[in-house]
Amino acid sequence: IISLDIIAVAFVLWLASGVDFFALLGYTTLATLLVVCIDGITAAIARFLPKKCANHQAKIYAVSGKEKKFYEKIGIRKWKDKLPEIGHFTGFRKNRIADPKNPKYVERFLMETCYGEIGHFFSCFSGFLLLLFGFIYPPLWWLISLCVAVINAALNIPFVFILRYNGYKLNALYANLLRKQSRESAKEQEEN
User: Fold this and answer.
1) Which tens digits make up the pLDDT trace of 69-93?
2) CB–CB of 31/132 below 8 Å?
3) 3-state helix vs strand vs coil in the chain, percent to 5
4) Distance from C-alpha of 162 to C-alpha of 174, rounded to nearest angstrom
């Protein structure tokens, strides 16, 4: 997808500007590599935020019924598992729940989901930092970087959707586990 985006941006700009196609391809590739680095830095910064920033019970992570319906309307269940998951970089894979009966594990999963949401959300905007590298080949660089930044934002949005949708489901699972744990504790106390 990224390679096709690079070629498409270079081709469109070549048609519009008449600048050498291979030069545009090189600059577009450079812009893409820079935006990947910027996204990596954004994700690292997000990951090093205090845990209170990734509290799944915070209002900012709440998903309304309307939002959930929107995700279902766009068919998120059909395509969410087809997108790459790179949780191995943080040491916590989020492509499946390894221990769905353990409340501590599910709570950690929710925290990691919140960190991912923060990272992808801010990556939608941090990609526009490419415009600061305008000294490379102005004014064409600004056009290239604007195209790459918009594509970067468009590629990050589905991940925000997936994380919010999964967070909604995980919160329901977590609440059920806590209720079950509470009932079992009460039952044990009655028996003692």
Assistant:
1) 999 999 999 999 888 887 656 666 6
2) no
3) 80, 0, 20
4) 18
